[in-house]
Amino acid sequence: MRAVMVLAVLVLAGIFAPQARAGEVCNETSYYVDAAKAWGGENGISAQGWQRIAPGSCARFSGIPAGVPQFLYARTSEAYLGGAREWLGRTPVCVDRANFQIEGADDCEAMGLEQREFRQLAPSERARAVLVEPDDFGSRALEAGVQRLLQTLGYEVRVVDGFAGRRSRNQIAAFERDAGASFGSNYERLIERLHAAALERNREVGLNVCNQASAPAGIAIARQRNERWQSRGWWRIEAGSCMRVIAERLQPGEVFVFAQTINGDRTEPLRRGVEAFCVAPGRFTSEGRSNCAERGYTQVLFRPSPVPVDGVARVTLEDADFEDLVQ
Questions:
Q1: How far apart are CA 30 and CA 139, in angstroms?
Q2: How far is CA 302 from the centre of its chain?
Q3: pTM: predicted TM-score of the whole model, two decimal places
Q4: Helix/strand/coil (H, E, C) string of 216-285?
Q5: Interatomic CA distance for residues 77 and 119, integer angstroms
Q6: Residue 298 carries which DSSP code?
Q7: Range 79-90 average pLDDT
Q8: 241, 215 in Cβ contact below 8 A?
Q9: How confident is the model at residue 261 (pLDDT cuts 50, 70, 90)?
Q10: Reduced to 3 states, what is the DSSP secondary structure of residue 139?
Q11: Torsions phi, psi of 160, nearest 5?
C-alpha cells in the first residue's frame, strides 16, 4: 500500500509541477546570429547557449520552466568583418565562449566566464521572440542574408535589401562558379555555403593573443574608433591557450595591447609598455585616454600590437613579458 501511495504522490506532483517549455527565437535580420537565453529561478539566473540561427530561420530553447522571467542575448557570428553586432539589454548574465548550460552563476570572473547584457523578454515573447534590424526584412531575411554574405566575401552587392534582383543573381552565379557548385533555388543550402566560406576566410583575421606564460592572463586592448581612442577589457586567456580578441581586419598602428597575469589576488603587469590608456579592475570600456584617475580608472602603459599581415596580428606572451615572472 505504501508503494502505491508514494507512486500516487509522484504522479500528482508531476501533474501540478510547472512544466518546462520550449521557447522559439526567430532571426529576421540579415546576419547569422548566435543566441543565448537566460531565466530566473530560486538559485538565481540560469542560462544556455549558443544556438546558431540563420537569417529567416528559428531555433527552439527547451528546458526553461514556465512562468519565470526570461532574457535574450544574441550576437553576429564570426563570419562578418567589422566586429560583432549585438542584440542586448541591461541584465548582466554569465556566459561561456563555447556552448554552455549554466545554473545560478553570479560571479562570472571567479568561474572563468564572460558577462553579457541580456534583454528581458515580455511575457508575449517567451513563446516566440524575434530578432530584427532597423531595416525590417521580415520574410525577406533569407534573401537579405545571402546578399550580406556575398558582400562580406567581396562580391559586388551594393545594397542589402532582401530583394533578389539581377545584380544579386549575377553575384550568386559568380559565387557558384568560384565554389564549383550550383544551388538553384535552394537558398538555405546557398546561405550555408556562403557562411562557411566567410567563416573560413575570417578564421584568423584580427588580433590573436597566445599566452605562453606560466599563469592565466587578462588582456585589454586600446584602439582608435571614429577618431576617438577607446580601451576595453578583460579577456581571460589560460596558460597555454590562444584567443582571437578582435575579429576584424586590422591596419598598422591601429591597436595597442596590455596584459596582466592572474594568480589569486596577485597580478603582474606587462613590461615595456609605451602608450598610456585607462583600465579598470573589472570588465570595462573607457572612452578616451586622458584623466583616467578623475574618471575612476587606472592609467597603465600598453604596447603596440605587431604590424598586421593581411589583416592578421599575433601576440605571444611569455613569463619574460611580465614584471615579477622574469627569472
A1: 11
A2: 24
A3: 0.65
A4: CEEEEEEEEECCEEEEEEEEEECCCCEEEEECCCCCCCCEEEEEEECECCECCEECCCCEEEEECCCCEE
A5: 19
A6: E
A7: 86
A8: no
A9: very high
A10: helix
A11: -95, 105
**Length of the chain, in residues:** 327
Q: Could you say which DSSP state residue 147 is in?
A: H
The predicted-structure confidence for 172-193, as pLDDT tens digits, reads as follows 999 999 999 999 999 999 999 9
CA 49 to chain centre: 11
Nearest to 45 by CA among 36, 55, 54, 53: 36
Rounded Cα gap, residues 326 and 237, in angstroms:
19
Q: Strands 312-317 and 206-211: what pairing?
A: parallel
3 state SS of 100: strand
Backbone torsions φ then ψ of 176, nearest 5 degrees = -60, -40
pLDDT at 82: 67
315 in Cβ contact with 257 (< 8 Å): yes
**Dihedrals φ, ψ of 173, to 5°?**
-60, -40
Mean pLDDT of 80-98: 89
d(CA 244, CA 129) in angstroms, rounded, equals 30
Q: How many CB atoms lie within 10 A of CB 305?
A: 24
pLDDT of 13 reads: 37
> At 166, is the secondary structure helix, strand, or coil?
helix
Buried b (16+ CB within 10 A) or exposed e, 278-299: bbbeeeeebeebeebeeeebee
**pLDDT for the residue 136:** 94
d(CA 190, CA 172): 9
Q: Residue 33 pLDDT more than 80?
A: yes
